[in-house]
Every structure is written in C-alpha cells, then in structure tokens.
C-alpha cells in the first residue's frame, strides 16, 4: 500500500526542511584517542582523497527444514568488521608507528629516528580511532569510531616526479576479550538532528 502524497508534502525527491542540517560535508580528520569534540586526541595529519568509515556486518540466515525463504527472527550476525581508511600525507615517526602494527621506534641516533618491525603486541592497538566530520549547519561533528584499532594495510611509500607521497592506510577495529559481544565501533550523531 502506498501512502498518498498530500499538497505541501516533500514530494518525490526526499528533501525536507531538515535536509540541509543532515548532510556530511568536506574532508574530515582522523584522531587517535578521541574523547569528545573538545578533546579529539592526536590528529593523524593531512590526507588526500578523503577518508572512509566502513562497517561490514554479515547477517546469516538460520536455515530450517520447511522454511520457504528468509524468515523474521531467524537471522543472526556472524561477522562484524569496522574500518577507517585514508591516504595519509604526513610522514613522521609517530605517524608511521600508527600505520604499521608492531612498529618499534628507536630515537637513539641523533640524526634519524629508526623504525623497525616487531611482533604485534597489546600496546600496538589504538584504543579508539575516530573519523571526525562536519555536518552542514551544525556545531557538533559527526564521529565514526573504531575501537581497539590496528593498522592492517601494507606500508607503501610512493615517490613520483611532480607529486607528493600518500600512504594508503586502513585501521580495523577489534573485539575486546573482556567484552566479546560488543561490536568494536561507534557512530556519534548530534542529537539535535532528530528524524525518524
């Protein structure tokens, strides 16, 4: 059954008077250790090509004899993967450490900081990594967070004539051993946006 469109309703385009205040705009920034908009944590730095918060949730159908198809109540989540992706432009030791799981930083040389690889240890997980973006017409940001984030993309530093190096980065959220049923992600959307 379709609902009638009454005079003065939005019409066929989906716009409403709230639309301008619900649109994410511009590039956003990535922060390690985000607490809130006043204490965002450590900025990962400039990026190029935008940044993305990704959430993949596999919802499995529970098969039962005699059921003709997908049945309400017979679905369950079987896998959840939350990631943040970006192309980082700033190459400095702490950033490389955030881009390589298990990186070890040695500052004993007075001229160079030396970064080497090592095993992934508990301290390599970033408690939370947040993609903070702007919502048009709102003073509060949109925030997408991955919890227990670990960098998982290969480290490739491309150098090319007449260009700047950008390093593809992907951080994946991880479930906590102490709370294995809470998904490792959060979305913060300002309450004054409202909607249904």
List how many beta strands DSSP finds. 10
The largest pleated sheet is described as: 8 strands, antiparallel
Helix-strand sequence = EEEEHEEEEEE
What form results from the Cα inertia axes? globular
Indicate the radius of gyration in whole angstroms: 22 Å
Helix content: under 10%
Gap from first CA to last CA? 20 Å
Polypeptide structure, described:
- The chain contains 1 helix and 10 strands; from the N terminus they run ββββαββββββ.
- It is mainly β and 196 residues long.
- Strands 1, 2, 3, 4, 7, 8, 9 and 10 form an 8-stranded antiparallel sheet that branches.
- The longest helix has 7 residues, at 93-99.
- It is globular, with a radius of gyration of 22 Å.
Concise structural overview:
The protein has 196 residues and is mainly beta. It is 4% helix and 40% strand.
Sequence-ordered SSE layout with sheet pairings:
Layout: E1 24-32, E2 42-43, E3 47-61, E4 75-88, H1 93-99, E5 103-106, E6 114-117, E7 126-135, E8 142-151, E9 167-172, E10 185-188
Antiparallel strand pairs: 1-2, 1-7, 3-4, 4-9, 5-6, 7-8, 8-9, 8-10
Task: Give the tags.
196 residues; globular; eight-stranded antiparallel beta sheet; two-stranded antiparallel sheet; mainly beta
């Amino acid at each position: 059954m379709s609902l009638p469109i009454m005079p003065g309703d939005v019409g066929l385009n989906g716009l409403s008077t709230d639309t301008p205040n619900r649109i994410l705009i511009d590039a956003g920034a990535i922060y390690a250790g985000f607490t809130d908009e006043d204490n965002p944590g450590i900025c990962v730095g400039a990026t190029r090509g935008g940044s993305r918060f990704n959430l993949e949730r596999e919802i499995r159908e529970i098969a039962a004899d005699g059921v003709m198809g997908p049945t309400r109540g017979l679905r369950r989540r079987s896998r959840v993967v939350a990631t943040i992706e970006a192309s980082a432009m700033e190459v400095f030791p702490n950033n490389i450490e955030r881009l390589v799981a298990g990186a070890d930083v040695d500052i004993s040389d007075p001229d160079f900081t030396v970064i080497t690889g090592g095993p992934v240890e508990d301290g390599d997980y970033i408690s939370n990594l947040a993609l903070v973006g702007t919502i048009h017409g709102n003073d509060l940001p949109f925030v997408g967070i991955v919890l227990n984030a670990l960098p998982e993309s290969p480290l490739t530093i491309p150098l090319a004539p007449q260009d700047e190096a950008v390093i593809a980065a992907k951080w994946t959220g991880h479930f906590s051993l102490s709370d294995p049923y809470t998904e490792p992600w959060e979305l913060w959307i300002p309450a004054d946006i409202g909607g249904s």
